[in-house]
Amino acid sequence: MALAPYPPSQLHSHLLKTTPPSLTFSWNNLLKAYSPSRLSLLLFSHLLCYPSFSPNRFTFLFLLSSPCKPIEAQQLHAQILKTPSLSSYPFLQTRLINTYASIDDCDSARQVFAEISTKDLVSYSSMISMYSRDLCIDKTFELFNEMRFTGIEPDQQAMVALLSLTSSVGALDFGRFLHGYVAKNRIQMNAYLGTSLLDMYSKCGCLEEAVKVFHEIPERDITSWNALISAMAVYGRGFEAVCTFEAFLASGQRPDEATLIGLLMACTHGGLVDHGRKYFARLKRGEYGFKPGVHHYGCFVDLLGRAGLITDAYELILRMPFEPDEVIWATLLSSCSVHKNVEIGRVTAERLLDLNPDNAGYHVALSNLYASEGRWEEVAEVRKRMKDRGVEKTPGCSWVRIGHKVYRFVMGDKLHSQSPEIYAMLDAIRMELKLAGYVPDMSSVHARHGEEALEQHSERLAVAFGLISTNEGATIRITKNLRICLDCHSVFKLISKIYRREILVRDGKRFHQFEHGLCSCGDYW
To answer: What are phi and psi of 368, to 5 degrees?
Structure first.
């Protein structure tokens, strides 16, 4: 069958003229070749016009591998149901679950799963993966227990999906249970599963346990090393990350681009400017087998900016061998905000607003820069521009895990069932803070809004809820979508000392471990 002279757009009509529709095997081969694209669906729709075409289970397996729209997935499902022998075929049912999961149609996926008469490891794993992606922790754990009750033991793929969910929601207790389950049931610990365990512990605030898991992985690959270096980076363990990188090189392995990104991030969060300069210079010389890309330049801009070398960072961007992207300019703007460099910050913000005028974060950063200098007229101008363009600020959200539930808070949230108790706790915290000599940082808040605006930040509500909902001395774990502000950072240090609590905060940038009035970041973040 000579196909080369015909482009895809003309291939269907040519084949339909030369190949009888009844030759299902031949058509299945072509559908398989087309399955990475939507051409398979187009061809199938043409074939359905011929009564002699009889699709079989392989036909639909290949079609369900194509990128389907919701209506197309439903139509393929309807075609399968026309033939009873196909509708009960296990592999097709599992493929349907995966297809529905890929288009976020969880209800249809659940319906197909419920109709499977004999559920197996593959079908359970597909459902667990879907629930894990959607962060449905209760349903995932329920399904996991059902799976075990029926005598089906999860494999590495299912365990990795469960660990991924555990990492995302910070469910350390369940993560430890899964680790124990792996050991008890002697599930083979390879680099894939070991790295997932490492990632789980690091994202749940247990770096030491992550390091321990790393050393238990029998054959560590580059992904395992990269995961450990990146974990050390977000904890601000710069020197440990550098030592790990040197040990990685000594093992005879070659770093990839992700390795150097993790290493430069570690130098950034650890304040290791000289180390960062050294590794970036080696990278530019090609000593690791590749030259720095835009992400490496972004890390180095961040390194310089966080250290207060704003001019150096700005000049580096201007000398880059390629056009700086939005992320690099945003990184510089963040540093300008921290170090209150209004001049370069204004230029950077204007560049960003040219690239993405509807990004609320850039407007807010520029507004905060002006506010830090008390330039309230400029603040008003920025806010007016936001209002005129219909740009709304991204709300700060914080999540705190209490028991087996995750609770979400936004700024000024009063919808929680225990809001009166939460705000009463905030009042008590305010009194304790004043006794400890706390003075609020009002640099980004107009005087007329006062301290109340700071007190109602989402992370303050989350920590207050954590204090009233957990036993004395229990660790409070909070996840936040944005960078924790300077004032909340100072307050959390004091709360950890006053109430004798360990408070772990994973914000949009890194981990903060507050304990005994100190933070693991050393106030450098």
So the answer is: -65, -35
Quick check: is 37 in a domain? no
Where do the H-state alpha helices sit in 392-449?
Answer: 419-435
Report which residue type is found at 142.
Answer: E
Residue type, 363: H
Q: How far is CA 36 from CA 8, 13, 26, in A?
A: 13, 20, 18
- Evaluate whether residue 156 is within a structural domain: no
Highest mean pLDDT (candidates 1-15, 156-170, 438-452): 156-170
- How many domains does the chain divide into? 1
Residue 425's domain comprises 397-519
Burial class (CB in 10 A: 0-12, 13-18, 19+), 415: exposed
- Asked whether 460 and 491 are in contact (CB, 8 A), the reply is yes
The answer to whether the beta carbons of residues 162 and 128 sit under 8 Å apart is yes
The number of C-alpha atoms within 13 Å of 488 and in the hemisphere containing its C-beta is 29
Sequence-ordered list of residues with C-beta below 8 angstroms from that of 112, at least 6 positions apart, any chain: 77, 93, 96, 97, 100
Is the pLDDT assigned to residue 98 strictly greater than 70? yes
Q: What is the pLDDT of residues 464-509, one digit of tens each?
A: 999 999 999 999 999 998 889 889 999 999 999 999 999 999 887 7
> Is the Cβ–Cβ distance between 130 and 109 less than 8 Å?
yes
Q: Which two tokens stand for residue 233?
A: 């980076």
Token pair 């469960």 in the structure block, residue? 162
The angle subtended at Cα 506 by Cα 456 and Cα 168, nearest 5°, is 115
Does residue 2 surpass a pLDDT of 50? no
| Alpha carbons 490 and 288: distance in angstroms, whole number | 40
Structure tokens at 307: 């250290």
Q: What is the pTM of this model?
A: 0.79
- The answer as to whether 372 is a domain residue is no
pLDDT on residue 5: 38
The reply to whether 443 falls in a domain is: yes
